[in-house]
Amino acid sequence: MSNYVELPIVGIFITLMGFYASRQLIKKYSFLSSGLVLWTVLFILGTLYVLDINFDAYWNGGSWVSMLLGPSVIALGVSLYEHSNKLWKQLKPFLISVVTGGIIGIVSVVLLLLQFKVQPEIIKSIAPKSITSPIAIEVAQSIKGIPEVTAGIVIFTGILGSVFGPVFLKIIGNKNNSAMGVALGTTAHGIGTAKAYELSNVSGVYGGLAMCVNGVISAVMIPYIVELMM
Amino acid sequence: MENKNKLISVILIILFLLLGELVKMVFNLPIPGSIIGMVLIFMVLKLKWIRLEQVKPTSDFLLKYLSLFYVPYGVGLVTQYKFLNGKLTEIIIALVLSTFLAMYITMKLFKVFEKNE
């Protein structure tokens, strides 16, 4: 039986069922709609617990699903081209807000963690929290953080930003779709971008570009910021 | 015609991912291959070497289900608990404050400078 659940197809099936169930849930209860990734994760964790499947067995199939992240980044490039006319017109507000927001995100989290006396190794692992996971993991390695922790923190930040971000921005009075996308992509990378695509195509495009620009700029800045502050 | 473009679009998307990984390896860059591939496909579309219709079927499909592809990493998060033990509350507070501060400033700056254009 344990060999059976280790088949990749089991992990793939559980992932797809969780995603389907969450989409159905959201269709019925629209107030839950910001938590698509979160509900899917909880559904899968519940299923793994009930069926007594460990994470490594699940990952045999889960890694197949996540393998599509690479091609999705290429797809973002296509989407950016499709909407690039809009972006060139707003290049200045875009670059100023993404670069400033990205740096404030890094500096503020490092300051707070120093204040809370968290170990330097963990602080270095958390500093890249808002960068898209493939870049974040490489940054963590280069500044001697723990890549596994970084992977977890990046996903947590993405879920945090995508679940509460749209509500937060609406409460403080934002009705601008492009500003929503830029803020979600800069702070919550790909998960924020996926959320932005659910909200509107314009938000998604801005989110995708913000994620890419923030990823590259933060990757260059973080080693210097961390050295200066710690 | 429709089906022909579908197959070509899958091939092109994978081709640019491969090219990105190749550029990363050859020049030993710290940036992920997928990001390089993204820039490359953007440039090639801009130069009109390939047409949007040749890649759009697959790229639209991938973006529609982008959330799904992150899910397994989200499940993996629970296996990382042991590293954060002891300071978990402080770390969550720091993440929440920092994320929403950055989100607010990004949104505000974009709107302010958008108006000034």
TrEMBL record, chain A:
<feature type="transmembrane region" description="Helical">
    <location>
        <begin position="6"/>
        <end position="22"/>
    </location>
</feature>
<feature type="transmembrane region" description="Helical">
    <location>
        <begin position="93"/>
        <end position="114"/>
    </location>
</feature>
<keyword id="KW-0472">Membrane</keyword>
<keyword id="KW-1133">Transmembrane helix</keyword>
<dbReference type="Pfam" id="PF04172">
    <property type="entry name" value="LrgB"/>
</dbReference>
<keyword id="KW-0812">Transmembrane</keyword>
<feature type="transmembrane region" description="Helical">
    <location>
        <begin position="29"/>
        <end position="51"/>
    </location>
</feature>
<protein>
    <submittedName>
        <fullName>TIGR00659 family protein</fullName>
    </submittedName>
</protein>
<feature type="transmembrane region" description="Helical">
    <location>
        <begin position="149"/>
        <end position="169"/>
    </location>
</feature>
<feature type="transmembrane region" description="Helical">
    <location>
        <begin position="205"/>
        <end position="226"/>
    </location>
</feature>
<feature type="transmembrane region" description="Helical">
    <location>
        <begin position="63"/>
        <end position="81"/>
    </location>
</feature>
<dbReference type="InterPro" id="IPR007300">
    <property type="entry name" value="CidB/LrgB"/>
</dbReference>
<dbReference type="GO" id="GO:0016020">
    <property type="term" value="C:membrane"/>
</dbReference>
Automatic annotation (TrEMBL), chain B:
<keyword id="KW-1003">Cell membrane</keyword>
<keyword id="KW-0812">Transmembrane</keyword>
<feature type="transmembrane region" description="Helical">
    <location>
        <begin position="91"/>
        <end position="110"/>
    </location>
</feature>
<dbReference type="InterPro" id="IPR005538">
    <property type="entry name" value="LrgA/CidA"/>
</dbReference>
<feature type="transmembrane region" description="Helical">
    <location>
        <begin position="61"/>
        <end position="79"/>
    </location>
</feature>
<keyword id="KW-1133">Transmembrane helix</keyword>
<protein>
    <recommendedName>
        <fullName>LrgA family protein</fullName>
    </recommendedName>
</protein>
<feature type="transmembrane region" description="Helical">
    <location>
        <begin position="7"/>
        <end position="23"/>
    </location>
</feature>
<feature type="transmembrane region" description="Helical">
    <location>
        <begin position="29"/>
        <end position="49"/>
    </location>
</feature>
<keyword id="KW-0472">Membrane</keyword>
<dbReference type="Pfam" id="PF03788">
    <property type="entry name" value="LrgA"/>
</dbReference>
<dbReference type="GO" id="GO:0005886">
    <property type="term" value="C:plasma membrane"/>
</dbReference>
